[in-house]
Design goal:
This protein is an alpha/beta fold. It contains 13 helices and 29 strands.
Length: 555
């Protein structure tokens, strides 16, 4: 067992420690079992980090196994996307990729075993009858009229199901357990249903498909899983998990353990709701940077390290809670503060003319790529008579707290000179469209010679050499912390979750790479989007320099 003092502990690791110490297991074997009916999201990342992390820390193994028992909702594109996400997060599964469909023949054999033992029967009740007979949380269920069908007849009916002689919804293979059980999952649950659907792995070989609760536990046992980790909503289903394994002939018997799922502020993690957002085009696909999917977070500029660190910080418990989005933001902000090179971009440009700077002159200034890391090197900045600055960085009048450019006062241009605002030009509506300044040519890289103090520093981009770029300012997808708790979660969509700006960026960004993270000085952390072209740069805001939502909540 590879264990260090710094390894995080939780109740699952304590169970594993005891199992290894007692000799119950000599090798730890886990699995990550996604259903390929959508993209993975940040909640899945928690499970990935738990299952693969445990395998790594205990020198064990973790399988990647697709729970592919519902072909109508599954797609090979989801299979490929899930593999990409797991790999991108930095994890490697044991051996080949596995599928529940790999075990369809064995699962069918175990179903026959249950029928032969009188523990499963083919039920021809209508779906409505099945629902009515199931009972409620307060009232027991009632036996189906088909519950006492003979073993021989059940075998014959199940064979006809397999041969496609019954229609979808006409019958089910059900376990014979206890219709009076206080646990709904034990009231003769369905084991197989008829579905005439093409399967992305098995094609048209099968027209009956096993249910998740029957498939999952057997797949775990076949693979020799020692610790089957799942979220708390499967806690009651552990009884069915154990019932199936105790009533079939199989060598290994894994055990299921449950932990709390991730609930994250200002988003939804229900796959059904995420599919609705995509299909109804409330977002621009599964990898829309506002989505909580791993693909969306990646496109927004989140790194694997930041997501893994976030999963480490929230921990593993049995208690449900709503995690603050600021925790996730803090993880990427802390990382990018250390490793993201700096650049200058003006998102709301207003022109500034330095009247005493020579016409048709350009000089090359040198700027560090990171203020605290010389190893990142330097870059060249063209400086010209006409530049752009942020509109919010200029006021005609301001109090002493405003440390930017004010009419009649001075400010320093980042990595350049001290300038003084002399006059402005306005449009017919009274908006400032040009600021006319003078500069002190003796202040490049040093304070004014006469000792006067200039406190403010603003960023800028050459109007002559700057590049036009689209900047997508992404924000919370929902305007309330817990949209899943709303009667209509779509009504809580944040209308300002995307603000598009036409910006001017420094020319060094012409060579930026897709996914490349950087800090636009004083504006936040950004990444180049995959839709960028040489003629149209597109940058996505990953996160601001500060948590603006926390400030807003306090106001």
């Amino acid at each position: 067992m590879a264990e260090t003092d710094s390894r995080p502990t939780n109740f699952i690791r304590q169970i594993i420690d005891n199992d290894l110490k007692s000799g119950l297991h000599s090798v730890v074997q886990t699995r990550f079992p996604p259903e390929p009916n959508g993209y993975l999201h940040i909640g899945h990342a928690k499970s990935i980090c738990l299952n693969f992390g445990i395998a790594q820390d205990y020198a064990g193994y973790c399988n990647l196994r697709f729970d592919d028992t519902n072909p109508e909702k599954e797609d090979i594109d989801y299979v490929n996307a899930i593999q990409q996400d797991v790999s991108w997060l930095g994890f490697k599964w044991h051996g080949k990729v596995r599928y529940s469909s790999d075990y369809f023949e064995q699962l069918y054999g175990f179903a026959l075993e249950l029928i032969n033992k009188g523990l499963a029967y083919v039920d021809f009740s209508t779906p409505e009858e099945v629902r009515q007979l199931r009972g409620t949380l307060k009232a027991p269920g009632q036996n189906s009229a088909y519950r006492d069908t003979s073993v021989a007849d059940n075998l014959a009916h199940f064979e006809k199901m397999k041969q496609g002689e019954y229609q979808e919804g006409q019958c089910l293979l059900r376990a014979k357990i206890d219709m009076a059980s206080p646990f709904m999952c034990m009231r003769d649950p369905a084991l197989y249903r008829v579905k005439f659907a093409h399967h992305h792995q098995t094609g048209d070989a099968w027209c009956i498909y096993p249910m998740y609760d029957f498939t999952h536990c057997i797949s775990d046992a076949i693979e020799g899983i020692t610790h089957s980790l799942c979220t708390l909503e499967f806690q009651d289903n552990r009884r069915l998990y154990d019932w199936v394994l105790s009533n079939i002939t199989i060598d290994t018997v894994p055990h299921q353990y449950e932990f709390s799922r991730l609930n994250l502020e200002y988003t939804v993690l229900s796959k059904r709701k995420l599919i609705q957002l995509v299909e109804e085009k409330h977002v621009a696909g599964w990898d829309d940077p506002r989505m909580p999917t791993i693909a969306g977070l990646r496109r927004r500029g989140f790194t694997p390290n930041a997501i893994v660190e976030f999963c480490k910080r929230i921990g593993v418990t049995k208690m449900d809670n709503l995690v603050e989005m600021s925790m996730l933001d803090a993880c990427i902000r802390e990382e990018l503060n250390e490793r993201a090179p700096r650049a200058m971009a003006v998102l709301d440009p207003v022109k500034l003319v330095i009247e005493n700077y020579p016409n048709d002159t350009s000089e090359t200034l040198v700027a560090q790529n990171h203020p605290n890391d010389e190893s990142m090197g330097t870059r060249q900045l063209p400086f010209t008579r006409e530049i752009y600055i942020e509109a919010e960085d200029f006021r005609e009048e301001a109090n002493k707290k405003f440390k930017r450019l004010v009419l009649g006062k001075e400010v320093r241009l980042r990595n350049a000179y001290v300038i003084k605002a002399e006059r402005v030009e306005k449009d017919e509506q009274g908006n400032v469209i040009c600021i006319y300044c003078t500069y002190d040519e003796q202040t490049l890289g040093k304070d004014p010679a006469d000792g006067r103090k200039v406190k403010g520093v603003i960023h800028w981009v050459s109007a002559t050499h700057g590049l036009k770029a689209q900047v997508n300012l992404y924000d919370r997808l929902f305007s309330v912390p817990n949209p899943a708790g709303e009667d209509d979660f779509l009504a809580a969509l944040n209308p300002e979750s995307l603000l598009v700006k036409q910006a001017i960026v420094e020319p060094s960004l012409q060579n930026a790479e897709v996914g490349h993270s950087l800090q636009f000085e004083r504006m936040g952390y950004f990444t180049l989007d995959k839709s960028s072209t040489t003629d149209q740069l597109v940058f996505n805001r990953t996160v601001g320099l500060r948590d603006s939502w926390a400030k807003a909540d306090q106001e």
